[in-house]
Amino acid sequence: MTGAIDLATLWAFIIAFAVFVYVVMDGFDLGLGILFPLFPAKADRDVIMNSVAPVWDGNETWLVLGGGGLMAAFPLAYAVLMPALYVPMVAMLIGLIFRGVAFEFRWRTTQSERNRWDIAFAGGSWLAALAQGIALGAILQGVHVEGRHYAGGWWDWLTPFSILTGVALAVGYALLGATWLVMKTEGALRDEAYRLSWALLLAMLGAIGAVSVATPFLHVQYTQRWFAWPNVILTAPVPIAVAAVTALLLRSLAAKRDYQPFFLSLALFALSYAGLGISMYPYIVPQSITIWQAASPANSQLFMLAGVAVLIPLILGYTGWAYWVFRGKVRPGSGYH
Amino acid sequence: MVLMFEGLDAASLARAQFAFTMSFHIVFPAFSIGLASYLAVLEALWLWTGREVFLNLFNYWLKIFAIAFGMGVVSGIVMSYQFGTNWSGFSDKAGPVIGPLMAYEVLTAFFLEAGFLGVMLFGLERVGHRLHFLATLMVAIGTLISAFWILSANSWMQTPSGYAVNADGQFVAADWLQVIFNPSFPYRLVHMVLAAYLTTALVVGAVGALHLLRDRHLPGARVMFSMAMWMATLVAPIQILAGDQHGLNTLEHQPAKVMAMEGHFAGHPDGAPLVLFGWPDQAKGEMKYAIEIPKASSLILKHSLDAPLKGLDSVPRENWPPVAVIFWSFRIMVGIGFLMLGLGLFSLWTRWRGRLYQTRLLHAFALAMGPAGFIAVLAGWFTTEVGRQPFLVYGLLRTADAASPMAAPAVGSSLIAFVIVYFIVYAAGLTYLFRLMAQPPHHSEEGPRAHRPASAAGITPAAGAATEGAAR
Question: Is B220 contained in some domain?
């Protein structure tokens, strides 16, 4: 277990990678659900749904990898965090059920019933996004651990901070959804998506700012991590990069580019995510359990590492192919046909 | 709502939640494992023979598959998080062994299915026939790989092997091959995959029978009915043999489960009777009103009339599983198994007489058997899962010690929430599935999206794809 990077750290990066891929991939399709109420026309909704219908299931699989991988690589963290996040997790699952089935159900029914599944799609997406953001905030603020168990109550997660992160994540997902629509649609729908992208970008910057300001107040360790010398040399580039990406994103929106807004929004997510990583490392349950304490035995982590090394590139390959097959603009009526 | 759970303990509510969500989940994988393979066969037959009827049937069942698969996915995500929310003791202790098996399921199966599903559902005109067939094949293979890993994980909980226990009290793998290929795994895998195939065959057969009852000349209905009846004829006897072997394996590794299945409270030193029916009284430890065939149980389990068989009285009371559930669910499963065999033989006889498409009694029988596979699958899982009680990892980790330290109201409220949500979603999903199945398969049957008026109005799939390509 010597060397620059040990097994537990490597696995922390793998889990973080899986969760990040989930956040950006399901992020934009949850974002579409969040924005759904703003597009009341059936034709627009059909296009929006069709733009992710072939890929949403794959996007959600990363969530299963994040959860399953956490259980396998850091079982103690999984065993402590899931009870601590009981209510947000159940809410997220219920949200995902409603929005997931809506993809097929809304095509199989009459107009009035379709409206109900549209509500299920939007409501489920909102619920899942808020619950994930709240879970994130609840993890950052720390949970009560005794021995190898969660020892808090089932409403401990509910604080102003976790509500803030819940809203922040929903706003971020909405931005991903809006810029995805810019990329995948045309005409009036795309114009509306541009307008939304402006507003949502400003809202997301506000959310990033609010979370960044609030986080150091949670624990003195967060403050030291970000502002103490010499850490600041390593942490200062993060806000600077956020400013740079924002400038590029504003320019791409002004120039009405198709692809840049989406990928720059992804970059904004990546930077925020890196910021979270900087705050948390090396804890997996902040201030209670480190990645080494939570790690499963080396032979479990090694057994999976062999699979991950071979399979993740393969998965990225065929997932990329599926996106490539359904590339380009989605048109009303024709869908992907 | 909170007060009503005060009398119940969190572990019992967690078990109820697992049983409920699992029962609603398992029927969809059972169906989609079989249906994915059936779709691959239909597409292969279409590509090979060029007969349109196979393409029509492919598109017909593809629409149904899309709904069933989606419902399986969303109810499956619930399962993968429930290990943490309700069973954190299990996650902590068994995570190092079970976790990697499930991680491999995600990496080798879920991504494969999800990655190729979009192309399978919507991509026929975009990627061409051969590549599309590859996508269908990948989805079908993915469902089977998924069954491999999850049944390995479940089997390890039934017959743990290849493990050690570390200083933190966690199970860790000593030998991964022994963990994966634990003693009950091969039997369980074969039994479950065959069950999935039979379940699907019965659904396909029932839909075919329904449309034959309405119009016995309908080509699509004839083809699917004939294929389904071949499946029942050939696989039902194999399944009965596989189930018998699985039972013998269980007798070797989990004797208390077999005692409960057989209803043997007392031991029989010189040949145990086969209890056909009876009323198990767990508190008194006896079988009431038993109707028995003398020595038949010894004949089945030991292949000898006079072989001794122990009873539950040889097992400490605190290790008894709940006998009545196991006793009855086992009989339901076996009974349905023999009904399937009967259906298969009946269809073989009418086929031989050249009356497969004319015998209305056969069609009515097949229609009635439509849901039988699901009931058998559930009954079988109740037998084996309840039969593992009171342990979560058999003989090693008690269910009561594996639950999360959650307050009963939290587990109870989430149980109620899931019940409400599942009833809404499943009621709707079943309605849509039945609506699709009530339509006869017809000429130029369309895929999952093409039925919309907008796309029917002049834009053929190929033209749509061509415009798309040109616009790039």
Answer: yes
